[in-house]
Structures are given as structure tokens and as C-alpha cells.
Amino acid sequence: MTNILVLHGPNLNLLGLREPDVYGRMTLEDINQHLQTLAAAHSVKLRIVQSNHEGVLIDTIHEVRAWANGILINPGAFTHTSYALRDAIAAVDLATVEVHLSNVYAREAFRHHSVLAAICVGQMSGFGWRSYEWGFLALLAHLQEE
């Protein structure tokens, strides 16, 4: 069985309420439920964690290094600032796909750079909640090809 860690970064617990014109109206629970259904259809086990705290995300990455085959991560604002999160992902050497609900390249200039992108197998952004779905499917395909 394939095991995938799904990490949601800061402020994603407010999905559905926070700037719905940018992030959509689906809640984080809606997205998680959709991912669980998708994972079950592909015989994948998920571990899903959301935190507003960088250290919790890093600790979770460390904890799953022997369990997970890959990571699906929406690092939120940590995308642009967290070298510690980048180093944690690099340290565990797990295939990682970065996802974003909005098209970060069509937004403020500071959002155009990801410190994580260089260590990820790919990035999916701009498709709302479908960024998670398509990121999951891309990660799964990558893992199956390895």
C-alpha cells in the first residue's frame, strides 16, 4: 500500500471563510474528505495534518519518514519563507508535490518564488481545490513510476 502525508500550512484551517474570491468556498474538511475518497479509490493511505506552526509541520515530516512514500503539501505562506521546512523535506528524501489553491504567479510579486519548488517533483497551482486532486494524482503517478 502507498502511504502519503498531506500537509496543510498556515491559515488553511480558515478555507471557505478566508478570502473566498481567492481560495474558494470549499472548507479544509471538504478537501480532506475528497482526498480520502480519492485515496481509497487508489488503495492509498493518507495521514493529514494542518498546522499554523512551522515546527509542527517539520516534526510531522520527520515522524513519517519511515512510513510515507510521498508528501502532498500546501505550505501556505511558508512557501516563500521557510528554509527550515525546505530542509526538512530534503532531509527525509520523500517525493513531494507542492500545491496551491490560487495561481501564485498571478498574485503579489512576493508569492512568485517558492523556496520549496527546487526540492519538489512538481507544483500544482491555480486550480482551486482541484490543485490538491491533481497534485495527488501526479504524486501517485510519480511514485508508481519510481
Verbal overview:
With 146 residues, the protein is α/β, with parallel strands linked by helices. The protein has a single domain (2-145), classed as 3-Layer(aba) Sandwich (Rossmann fold). The chain contains 5 helices and 5 strands, in the order E-H-H-E-H-E-H-E-E-H. The protein has helices spanning 20-23, 28-41, 54-63, 83-92, 130-145, and strands at residues 2-8, 44-50, 70-74, 95-100, 122-125. Strands 2-1-3-4-5 form a 5-stranded parallel β-sheet, with helices on both faces. Strand 3 (70-74), helix 4 and strand 4 (95-100) form a beta-alpha-beta unit. Helix 3 (54-63) runs parallel beside helix 4.
Summarize the structure.
By secondary structure, the protein is α/β, with parallel strands linked by helices.
Second-tier CATH architecture:
3-Layer(aba) Sandwich
Number of strands: 5
Shape: globular
Taking the alpha carbons of the first and last residues, their distance comes to 15 Å
Descriptive terms for the model:
alpha/beta, Rossmann fold, 5-stranded parallel beta sheet, 5 helices, globular
Detail the topology: elements first, then pairings.
Elements: E1 2-8, H1 20-23, H2 28-41, E2 44-50, H3 54-63, E3 70-74, H4 83-92, E4 95-100, E5 122-125, H5 130-145
Parallel strand pairs: 1-2, 1-3, 3-4, 4-5
Helix pairs in contact: 3-4
